Amino acid sequence: MRTTIGTLPWYSTILCLIAGVAIGWWHPGESTAITAALEGRLLDLRHVLRGPLEPPQEIAIVAIDDDSVARLERFPVPRGALAAAIDRLAEAGAKAVAIDLLLLDREPGGEGDALSPGDSVLAAALARHGGAILASTEAPQNPADADLVERNMFSIVRAAGAAAQRPAGAVGFLLPVREFAQEASLAHVNLGREADGAIRRIVLAMPIGTAAYLPAMPLEAVRLLRGLPRSEVQLTVGESISLGRQAIVTGAQDAIGINHYGPQGAIPTYSFIDLIDGRLPIDQLAGRAIFIGATALASGDVFLSPFATQLPGVEVLATAAANAAGDQYLRRAPSTFLIDVIVAALLSVLAFAAANRRSLAVAAAATVALWGLTFAGLQFAFASAYLWLDATTYVLVLFTIGLVTFAARVVQQRRISGRLERERDNLARYQSPLMAEFLAERQGSGFDQRAQEAAVMFVDVAAFTLRAERLGPTATVAFLRELHGRIERSALAHRGVIEQFMGDGAMIVFGLPEPRPDDAVRALAAARQLLDILADWNLDLEAAGHDPVRLRIGLHYGPVIAALLGGERQGQMTIAGDTVNVASRLQEMGKEHKAAIVASAAFAAGVERAGRDDMLTGLRRLAAQPVRGRNETIDLWVWP
Predict the structure, then answer these.
(1) Which of 255, 385, 584, 596 could serve as 203's disulfide partner, Cβ 3.0–4.6 Å?
(2) Helices 601-609 and 519-543 sit at what angle, rounded to 10 degrees?
(3) Contact by Cβ (8 Å): 312, 301
(4) What is the pLDDT of the chain when averaged over all its residues?
């Protein structure tokens, strides 16, 4: 059987819609440390579910690995070895060489202001290549060199979005040795870890000096790879970066999400020592942007990614360059924020509709299906369109709306159940509790005009008219309440249905709402219990100076018709048939035979069939007794 509870009114959808828009506008994946960490893990999960992705072949890495450090016997590597690598790359036809090493200080060995032999060789190699990029990093206390900054900065088209968030005053940077910087491009290599240590985005434009912005090394590498002049790389702060004809959409932080290609080595990687020893084929390097950086364990420049616990920083930069070159970066910008708000609003309505199904099983299934479709949509948007939608927003909307809807339905159901319980209690005051439950379960249609057997008891007070005359109206009502309460107690104790109270008497049926084999046994037990109750009551009445109460009880067992009687608007569940008439006549015959109980032979036979003939002990059998209104005589069993 399906379990159902009450549903909420349709206008609750409006409240859910408002809540969904509010959560979407709050954008929890960017709002707090806890929710941002959750969003990061959900993004990592999307990477893992998608699996590794083939990177563009325009980007490669020359790694200063453990073998290279062992051969060169030092780290950082000698400047002369670095110069040799640059010359090899120039000969191979590499379009850009991005050096992820901070060349901040001169190498020892120079006299006065002169460069050391190694530094001189490196400066010459940088000049010969013409497409080299040197690393710089933010240092708030270090003022930037104005002329070096000016020749490497963006051309700012306009300030929008987060332009007002630029730090006040000059922003310092650590720059390479001046002689190196004059022969190469400068770019920043700042990589910000998330709260959990993972790397998920890179800022493409960092503020430097008082008004300038310095490009990230991956962006500068793509510019040189495509042979674009600086004038074709333009920044709109807080919105986008134009790279020739390509528009890279950024957010308020001028950043893009990093679309990781796989574990370490997903970007084609070659050993630094193999390069300078001439063991790399030229066709593997020609026409590419090459990143030189450390992957040796001693470098310590590693990050957490969805596919690797220790991803070298140079591979992060190369990945970001491949993202930009192949237009595969993750979009997390004002446009995705708008999508998040719209989807959050839609999900809030759908989550309410799913959780508000009348059947709890259907509501649960619909809710689970909605969760599944939502995550499938998130994964599809990520894998096919590189959209970094805020999964945390969707999870919070689905969880909050679903939980609140189910909770509200439970509260509503408790209120409805309480009201129905009160209504059932009220109904039970005018119907037997057995019949009230039967009616509440709507089984009345199967009850109407049902032929069955039942035991019928009629109860009446002897000499009630004289008693009522002596008591007066008020005391008579009190007397009847006491009497009816005792009749009810004995009837309910044996599952008897009080069909009606008739002044000083009552009609009780044993066999409703469903007949049972022991109906006659229970009827006789109820009659004897009623007499016992009456005996105790008479002791109290006599002590108070009142006459004792004497009852006359008629019992008969036989076929009846269970039926719904009454008009169109008001009905009554009862039984009809000759069995009812005979039981009424037997109650009247109690006066004639001076008996408290008068039962028919058919009733006694019903007791015996149930295996309880012992209960007939104390009853005296009278053969062939006439009954008013009947032609045939019947045998009686009487209790004096």
Answers:
(1) 255
(2) 110
(3) yes
(4) 88
- Classify each residue of 413-448 as buried b or exposed e, where b means 16 or more C-beta atoms within 10 Å of its C-beta: eeeeeeeeeeebeebbeebbebbbebbeeeeeeebe
State whether 605 and 528 are in the same domain: yes
> Tokens in use for 121?
């060789």
The proportion of the chain whose per-residue pLDDT surpasses 70, expressed as a percent, equals 90
Number of separate helices (H) and strands (E) present in the chain = 19, 25
561 lies in the same domain as 417:
no
Contacts for 570 with CB less than 8 Å, ≥ 6 apart: none
Report pLDDT for 1: 38
Q: What is the pLDDT of residues 309-336, one digit of tens each?
A: 999 999 999 999 999 999 999 999 888 9
- Which of 592, 297, 315, 596 lies closest to 461, judged by CA? 596
Give residues with Cβ within 8 angstroms of 603, minimum separation 6: 455, 520, 523, 524, 555, 556, 557, 637
Give Cα separations from 385 to 56, 340, 381 (angstroms).
16, 15, 5
- Total domains present in the chain: 3
Domain extent, residue 273, equals: 56-106+116-154+169-325
Same domain, 175 and 243: yes
Q: How far apart are CA 322 and CA 316, in angstroms?
A: 10
Ramachandran quadrant class, 18 (left: phi over 0; alpha: psi -120 to 50; beta: rest): alpha
What's the pTM value of the predicted model, to 2 decimals? 0.70
* Separation of alpha carbons 583 and 528, rounded Å: 16
Shared-domain flag, residues 304 and 372: no
